[in-house]
Design a protein that fits this description.
By secondary structure, the protein is mainly α. It contains 18 helices and no strands.
């Protein structure tokens, strides 16, 4: 396959920029606190776009493909996500930022849970850490698949070769730069993604080929309400919003912002970016349905890639291909970093080397990035795997297992350590079991029953086994600090 020189130059230039940011971040990373949370020094704009890019990038590739096939009825998922993201910023961000610092400067969610409930035995930390590593393996795999599809389609590589190259690029700067690298690359990636999601559909809607197919387009494609939309389908789509409350890679951004005073500005930036990006993703799917009406794509999730190739000259095309890679990279780097943090703080320092130095912990963290990446690549060897399918499974797992724990931990004085363990186990197991049963009521997206049952389990067990007086006193001090 012939690759045009401008595409290659633009693409490689983008990758060089990302690695440059990684090397700069390496020099700015002096301690394990810097590597995991950037020393809690992130500004509002970087926080906002790193939340958006690490959050939306996976399904911004999958969503245009879903709209390409099913029309604007797929927008309900986006509506649910918008509402969930707004509530997450409004309800969780401030409380989590304050409480994690009060709780002896907790650096990870498992670390926060342990200190929030005074869990000296470490069982809660162990359960939550294992859950994070389990579901993030699938989540990171979704990005690996997306990266392989990109390299395969653009450069004509075999799937395995494309998978290995794409994974190596993403792992490199995360391995080197830690949280600073991930957040700042996400900031630039978020900007680039926004530009791409605006310029591609605008260009395609003015393309003569799209106009030819307009009259033949099924009107149902342009309606939010279609005959295919069932109550279960609507509830499933809206339930995606519940996932925000339990995503470790998103919540870590709230923990890392420099000051709670920056949160309102950061929220407005993040929600504006998300709204415009969503509109662009939906429009891209419709544009693809119009342009490829006569020659349907074999893989709907490549619609964005194909549109960039037919609509723009090679220089702009190379930049937009870099934007697609941005969408993939910005999610995987965040996930790898969270897994690395869990391995470092919640396994190595907790159980193996409590006295480990900061340099030793950073080394372990970097080794953890490589280990999780290798496992994710193995899972991603299934070239038929759907990006959106893998994302939906991991999103549900985190939303159901951790979402209720985070909310109850931040708002309920009577929530107990045993209640938190029950919440995580019931939420995670419900998602895993529900996913295997796909007919009837089990067609409902597994995050909704998982979230409800996990919340009930946490409440019931906390009533039967209430928290200690010390835990309740600590929570009262937290509330007084708000």
């Amino acid at each position: 396959m012939h690759i045009e020189t401008p595409v290659m130059i633009t693409f490689l230039g983008y990758l060089a920029l990302m690695m440059g940011i990684g090397l700069w971040a390496y020099k700015a990373t002096d301690s394990v606190d810097d590597y995991i949370l950037g020393g809690r020094k992130m500004g509002p704009a970087v926080t906002a776009l790193s939340v958006g890019a690490s959050d939306m990038s996976g399904w911004l590739l999958g969503l245009p493909g879903a709209v390409y096939l099913g029309g604007l009825g797929e927008a309900w998922m986006g509506i649910g996500l918008l509402l969930g993201a707004w509530l997450n910023w409004l309800l969780v961000a401030k409380r989590l930022r304050i409480y994690t610092q009060m709780a002896d400067n907790a650096l990870t969610l498992p670390d926060f849970f342990e200190k929030r409930f005074n869990d000296e035995g470490g069982l809660l930390k162990l359960v939550s850490a294992v859950t994070i590593l389990l579901f993030f393996t699938f989540y990171a795999s979704s990005g690996m698949v997306g990266g392989a599809v990109l390299f395969s389609n653009v450069f004509g590589l075999e799937y395995l070769t494309a998978l290995l190259i794409g994974s190596a690029v993403i792992v490199a700067y995360t391995f080197v730069g830690g949280f600073f690298a991930v957040s700042w690359t996400d900031f630039f990636q978020g900007c680039l993604m926004l530009i791409a999601l605006l310029i591609v559909p605008v260009s395609m809607f003015t393309h003569p080929e799209s106009h030819k197919s307009l009259d033949a387009l099924d009107p149902a494609m342009l309606s939010l309400w279609s005959d295919k939309l069932t109550l279960i389908g609507l509830l499933s789509a809206l339930a995606w919003g519940l996932g925000y409350f339990g995503q470790p890679h998103i919540l870590s951004r709230f923990m890392a912002i420099n000051s709670v005073k920056d949160l309102p500005v950061s929220r407005r930036i993040a929600m504006s970016w998300m709204f415009v990006s969503l509109i662009g993703a939906l429009a891209t799917g419709i544009a693809g349905a119009l342009y490829f009406a006569d020659e349907p794509l074999k893989n709907p999730e490549t619609v964005f890639i194909h549109l960039t190739q037919v609509a723009f000259n090679p220089w702009i095309g190379g930049l937009l291909i870099a934007a697609i890679l941005s969408a993939i990279m910005s999610t995987i780097d965040s996930q790898l970093l969270v897994c690395s943090s869990v391995i470092t703080e919640d396994f190595y320092r907790k159980w193996l080397r409590p006295e480990a130095s900061s340099k030793e912990l950073m080394l372990v963290g970097r080794i953890g990035v490589l280990a999780i990446a290798i496992i994710s690549v193995v899972v991603a060897l299934d070239r038929e795997a759907s990006v959106l399918g893998l994302v939906s499974y991991a999103w549900a797992g985190f939303g159901a297992a951790f979402g209720p724990v985070v909310i109850l931990s931040l708002f309920w004085r009577g929530y107990s350590r045993n209640g938190a363990i029950a919440t995580i186990l019931v939420g995670g197991l419900t998602v895993i079991i529900w996913k295997q049963l796909e007919s009837g009521i089990f067609a409902l997206y597994e995050i909704l029953p998982g979230f409800i049952l996990a919340t009930l389990a946490g409440v019931v067990v906390s009533r039967l086994s209430p928290p200690s007086e010390a835990t309740q006193t600590q929570f009262s001090r937290f509330e007084q600090s708000l």
